[in-house]
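Consider the tokenized backbone below.
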């Protein structure tokens, strides 16, 4: 894991160059991990995973019910 002090943001171009897919940069403040810099692909994957988790909760509809609602 790539952990850096938050002061590394002073040279943000250098810091951002170290962010790679599946390899976030963790920023620590006062010795505690506080923030994560992730690639946009990792961010999008995390968003999609969250949406799928919400969708798994339902509600679910069968095809007959959907077709009936569409034609009414």
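A designed sequence for it:
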């Amino acid at each position: 894991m790539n952990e850096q002090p938050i002061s590394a943001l002073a040279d943000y171009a250098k810091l951002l160059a170290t962010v790679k897919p599946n390899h976030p940069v963790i920023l620590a403040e006062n010795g505690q991990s506080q923030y994560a810099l992730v690639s946009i692909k990792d961010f999008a994957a995390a968003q999609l995973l969250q949406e799928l988790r919400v969708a798994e909760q339902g509600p679910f509809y069968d095809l007959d019910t959907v077709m009936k609602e569409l034609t009414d």
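The chain has one domain: 2-71.
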